[in-house]
């Protein structure tokens, strides 16, 4: 995604209509993860311009996503979507832009500026010639050969290294706020985005990391926000939520 213009979309999917739409399209995940269904639903609503990265917080707080389209552009695409798609995303309400709340997001950041952040990530690494995905903690534990390791510290270091590779910001401090092992549905090469008959369940870590970061390059940081962090960004991971740094 281009970082020349950036907007933050907030919408409140309807849990019952989302579940019904996902069931009708065989997108229900046995593990309870909605990432695959929301990925397909966003594409059904917005096509190739589907907002990404996104994060679904919960039924009460809704969904947040970064997009390069403003409210008018998004509304024009939603107008072409099937009514059940718009309703499932919570976009069927009355108003100029339906149930969408869209606001411009900064693309110019002062170098050295410190910000609070929270991000849901899939802390995995790719190993060997096959590029097999593996939990970063399990890989570190294997190298430690029995030495004591803290999962949260391993994931924070993983994030520190990832920011160093992607550029734009450096980690000031961070902690693991939440962790679970989660199996998430991923499409195989044969399948389409809205069909789980050609899909597989991939088990791995699901972690929320929070702390403070410092901007090191304004343009690269804006691109970092637009693109997201890590892998599986199209399925609900990698969106950086920002807040003022604590004093």
Features:
single chain; 247 residues; alpha+beta; four-stranded antiparallel β-sheet
Structure description:
The protein has a four-stranded antiparallel beta sheet, with no helix packed on it. It has a four-stranded antiparallel beta sheet with strand order 8-9-5-10. A two-stranded antiparallel ribbon has the order 6-7. It is 29% helix and 31% strand. It starts with 6 loop residues before the first strand and ends with a strand. It has helices spanning 15-24, 35-46, 71-78, 83-88, 136-144, 151-166, 218-227, and strands at residues 7-11, 54-58, 62-67, 101-104, 114-121, 124-127, 132-135, 169-187, 199-215, 240-244.
The general outline is globular
H/E topology pattern = EHHEEHHEEEEHHEEHE
What share of the residues lie within helices?
25-40%
Report the total helices.
7
| Alpha carbon gap, first and last residue | 33 Å
What's this, in brief?
The chain is α+β, with helices and mostly antiparallel strands. The chain has seven helices and ten strands.
Annotate the secondary structure layout.
Blueprint lengths: L6 E5 L3 H10 L10 H12 L7 E5 L3 E6 L3 H8 L4 H6 L12 E4 L9 E8 L2 E4 L4 E4 H9 L6 H16 L2 E19 L11 E17 L2 H10 L12 E5 L3
Antiparallel strand pairs: 1-3, 1-4, 2-3, 5-9, 5-10, 6-7, 8-9
